[in-house]
Amino acid sequence: MKKLEEKIFKILMIGSTVLILSILLYILYVIMKKGLPSLSWDMISKIPSGGFYLGKEGGILNAIMGSLYLIFFSVVISLMISVPVVMYLNFTLRRKSKLAAFARLTFDVLFGIPSIVYGAFGFTVMIYFGLQASLLGGIIAISLLIIPVMIRSIDEVAILIPNDLVEATKSLGATNYETIKVITRQLLPGISTAVLLSVGRGIGDAATVLFTAGYTDSIPTSLTQPTASLPLAIFFQLSSPVEEVQNRAYAAALVLTIIILTLSFAARYFSRRLSKNKI
Amino acid sequence: MELMTAPSIAEQPTPKAKSSSGCLRPHIEVENLNLYIQNNHILKNINLAIPDKSITCIIGPSGCGKTTLLRTFNRLHDGSVDVKITGKLFVDCEDIYAKDTEVTHIRKKMGLLAQRPCSLPMSIIDNVVYGPRIHGVRGKRKLYAIARHQLNAVGLWEEVKDRLKSPASKLSIGQQQRLCLARGLAVEPEIILGDEATSALDPISSKTIEELFLSIKDKYTIVLVTHTLRQAKRIADYVAFMYMGELIEFGTADQVFNHPKHKLTKEYISGGFS
Amino acid sequence: MLKGRLLKDRIARHYMLLATIFSIFILFLIGGGLLVKSLPIMQEKSLWTLLTTSNWRPFKGDFGFASYILSTLYVTAIAIAIALPLSLLTSIYIIEYASPRILRAFTAVVDLLSGIPPVIYGVWGTLTIVPFISEKLAPHFVEFSTGYSVLAGGIVLAIMIIPLIISILIEVFSAVPKEMREASLSLGATKWQTVKKVVIRKSIPGIVAATVLAISRAFGETIAVLMVCGNFTDLPKSIFDACYPIPALIANNYGEMMSVPRYESALMFAAFLLFFIIVLFNVISRLVLIQIDKRYQL
């Protein structure tokens, strides 16, 4: 009887593993199959021209550049906040400090908040400051989104740094700031991984930019101009009745997927270099 | 009774005759056992007979393979992909490394006491009766009786009788090790294996465990890997000395400690290396 | 020389403290900001009306969120019902039964795929799941279904959160000490018994945490669901009917927000609702975990 139970579950387990693996790979396959035919050099190097939405010339460069701009500035801002926060929590405050515990709790909650809430809030902030839908608006929303992601990711590595190392530097007469400078150098691989993870999260998210970044056919030249983004490019073009345009959505989807996969590979590579015990 | 003559200088004492199944071998008998971890030859041609109902201590410098050997007794290496084992190991005349041997009934015969007490994530009483439950024993009263008996046997009953349902992890480390012993005894094994079972404990708890072993050795065959010579001197009936994966010498405690035959044994006993 | 160093240290300390306070403050800013923006509509209609009626006619001033709330719950429930068992089964197999090589390969795949943006799942959903439901599955059960449905939303969401749950579970199961498994095996338990009674038991806090995170993700996911759920306000009568979860509501209508009075406030209220439910959920589950830890000290 017991043997039977074990056998049944074993079949279920293997079945479920195979199922999940196949579905995930199938998704990649479909995206490639639909996107590859429409992927051309023109597609990624040109912005939409006049008849683009009717199926004529142009490409998605506006979305590609837009997404790159958005994520670049967001990462910079986010780093300026996240790194000091993690350093403060781990190397300035005492490990058992209540502030640190409360902060971590807050960040965990923020981590679980859906991106549309960040988008809606970003929109509120924009209205409050009188901004239009623009690159800046998108940056604000995305930064808020990825700050918890970055903090969590860097914190995970910072926590591993043994106390003795910190104490050793301090006992040599270094100030807290100087100690942190030393430690930051050690944490660079961890920070890079965090950046990669945040980029992955931020670049593909549609809900944050939906309200805040607007959409346009051109590449923005200033922070106050609206900007296109890859997720929105995919979304809007998919809903077009023109098949040509739909195909371009698939191409954009493929481009986005390739970017994400490359980032994931890189993040894994870095995190492997960091910890020997990772699976 | 034939003596097993090993390639090394080890000499086996005459094992007591087994009564039950007409099995004439000693309780545990290792025959030409070799163990490889990823092509590293870790255990080299071990031939060893563990006598019944006595305490056998396996001693040797760290890294000599004593824990590895102990874990072959209840096939704990089964889960490791990199481990290859050749040779035979007879428990009650059954070669446990023969093809298709069912392993759970063998493990049931043996209780393992690990170095760090590992209580299962459940209450004290659930820990003790975990084994019997697995093997089909039912009935609250019956299980309670088993728990009471075994906890008494290890001297833990008075300390925990009022909180049997509380999590086992709340006990002190010495109490947890005794709990693990009670848990092991509850499946009514014939053999008890101890892997440096007292090394993580304070001296008083260690002493308690040692005394427990002494008090039950007339009912169980006990094999202990010990990290200190002193412990072996205190409680061993038989001693096996290992070095670099080989069994160098085996004999009664008196023989090995007072009249060691092998030079290496002599050096180790006198504290030459560790 | 020393003065300069101390000054730098002071500045750094203040900056770090500021950054930390700001980051903590974000949570309250978001909650407060959205709440403030929702006040107009909350003052106009009672909370009860907002939450329990399903009249949604913005131009007439009717804002009843009930069917949206129910849609969201519906879709999330289906997603979890599909994702949790599959993730558990797979994770257990990968950790306990599969060889280390399979483990490494599988974790690599899961890691890579957990980064794929929701919009891609949405695209894939419209290409594969929706037609599948409409043509192959639904005809067995109902007369007609466009395929854009609760079920489609649930399935797409499930596939999205499975990598998330699996990656957490794999870590959780790996954290169970080897000695514990060996203790169980040494008593004569089979591998499966060990998994059931020891590994899973010890991992309960982790499993709960993974589920909570998964539910949060599913609850608030916008674009993937939006593309396959049908965006139809009426309460779905079966899983093959279209639905309209809250995130989709917000996303679809933000453009019209400014044109109708109270519309913006209503949508901000919807966002606040999401925020509140998820934060509450997170806090409650954290308390539950603390309790489990105290009582059972796993």
Describe the overall structure:
The complex is a heterotrimer of chains A (279), B (274) and C (298). Chain A is an all-alpha fold and 279 residues long. Chain A contains eleven helices and no strands. Chain A has two domains: 2-38; 45-274, MetI-like fold (Orthogonal Bundle). In chain A, 75% of the residues lie in helices and 0% in strands. The radius of gyration of chain A is 23 Å and the shape is globular. The mean pLDDT of chain A is 86. Chain B contains eleven helices and ten strands. Helices cover 33% and strands 23% of the residues of chain B. Chain B has one domain (28-269): Rossmann fold. In chain B, helix 5 (140-153) packs across helix 7 (173-186). In chain B, the strands form two sheets. Chain B has a six-stranded mixed β-sheet, sandwiched between helices. The relative contact order of chain B is 0.18. In chain C, 76% of the residues lie in helices and 1% in strands. Chain C has twelve helices and two strands; from the N terminus they run ααββαααααααααα. Chain C is mostly helical and 298 residues long. The radius of gyration of chain C is 24 Å and the shape is globular. Classes of the chains: A mainly alpha (279), B alpha/beta (274), C mainly alpha (298).
List low-pLDDT spans of chain B. Answer: 1-19
Average pLDDT figure of chain B = 86
How much helical structure, as a percent, in the residues of chain C?
over 70%
Name of the CATH homologous superfamily of the domain at 64-249 in chain C: MetI-like
Main beta sheet of chain B, described? Answer: 6 strands, mixed
Question: How many DSSP E strands of chain C?
Answer: 2
Distance between the termini of chain B: 36 Å
Based on Cα principal axes, name the global outline of chain B: globular
> What characterizes the major β-sheet of chain C?
2 strands, antiparallel
In helices, the fraction of residues of chain B equals 25-40%
The name CATH uses for the topology of the domain at 64-249 in chain C is: MetI-like fold
Taking strands numbered 1, 2, ... along the chain, how are they ordered across the largest sheet of chain C?
Answer: 1-2
Number of strands of chain B: 10
- Hey, roughly how much beta strand do the residues of chain B contain? 15-25%
pLDDT under 50 segments of chain C (min length 5)? none
